Amino acid sequence: MSAGLALLASALWGTSDFLGGSVSRRLRAVQVLAVSQVLSALVLLVFLLVTGQLAHVRAGAWLGWAVLAGVTWAGAMGALYTALARGTMGVVAPIASCGMLVPVAAAVLTGERPGAVALGGAALALVGVVGTAGPELSGTQRTPASAVGLAALAALLFGVEVYALARASETSVAGALLGMRLSSLVVVVAAAAFVVRTAPPVLGRDLPLLLALGVLDLAATAAFALASASGLVSVVAVLASLYPAVTVLLARQVHDERLSRLQTTAVGLVLLGAVLCALG
């Protein structure tokens, strides 16, 4: 069950990253984050109210971890969306996903011991994720060095965010989701206030896409929180970080971004690594 939820999170994150990168080519990244976060926070509050879970949320050990997850997520998404808007999605997304190394290393150092098959699958998936960047990893005319640098920053922040979310989910999944969403909302809305005067307007036609983006990210976060609460973080984090394969394939279909033979092979390695992680 935890492996399935982690893979679901990966698919949803890959789709939301594709949408976010596409919208960020017209709007500022901080605008995309602010509006989508407001909409997704409203969806989460309504869900928790309707299901009665909000009444059971109490301050506890999850709070600090949830706030850390929200703040680092906001910074990571800002860097990622800007990088996706500047460069090739098939290059940026794989670099950003290498943040999986942070929670994996932290989990192993704190006592988790995944099996040899799972570790082999994780290593294979990591090679595949990096390989999907293809020969453009060092930066090209289509993918400038600034986009590569922003993707690397996003990777580091994502790694901290994923580990913090996993720790918060150990005591309260609902609290972790709510605390992370509200803290990230504060950060992105405050950042948006500084650019609103010079940014292009958010039009009515943008709202459905931004709502879909926010809901996809919220659903992915919930799936990962549930997966990490019931499985090994060192394995779950890898499975949830395979989303670049989804982003790459969507970019190819929608934006006609061509994949090299190396990138196509790398996507296959990602899928094989995911299977091994799940079996392990």
From TrEMBL:
Pfam families: EamA. InterPro entries: AA-Vitamin_Transporters, EamA_dom, EmrE-like. It comes from the Bacteria. Residues 5-132, 147-276 form the EamA domain. It is found in: Membrane. The chain crosses the membrane at residues 30-50, 62-84, 90-109, 116-134, 146-166, 173-195, 207-227, 232-250, 262-279. It is a multi-pass membrane protein. Keywords: Membrane, Transmembrane, Transmembrane helix. Belongs to the EamA transporter family. This is EamA family transporter.
